[in-house]
Design a protein that fits this description.
The structure is a single chain. The chain contains three helices and two strands. Strands 1-2 form a two-stranded antiparallel ribbon. The protein is of the alpha+beta class. Helix content is 26%, strand content 7%.
Length: 84
């Protein structure tokens, strides 16, 4: 229902699969180039989350939920989707 989709705790998992703009943001050249320089390896995008409202999550670790072949090569980027 529309009222549920507008709720404060809704998140869209793998938004890049539903949105060309989401995919372009996820694969932005600045992010990709930075991570390739850090890891000296090709970067693979594997998950995206979109929150309409900030999740206000406490400090946490994602490696238990987002499994990487090389755990030391897992990185996350946060991109504000509003003018702050």
């Amino acid at each position: 229902p529309q009222d549920v989709l507008n709720g404060p705790y809704i998140k869209f998992l793998d938004f890049h699969n539903m949105s060309v703009a989401g995919k372009k943001i996820m694969l932005h050249q600045s992010i990709v180039a930075f991570l390739e320089a850090v890891f000296s390896d090709r970067v693979v995008a594997m998950q995206s989350l979109l929150f309409k409202y900030g999740s206000q999550q406490a400090t946490h670790q994602d490696f238990a939920y987002v499994v990487s072949e090389k755990p030391s090569h897992l990185a996350a980027a946060w991109i504000a989707m509003e003018d702050v």
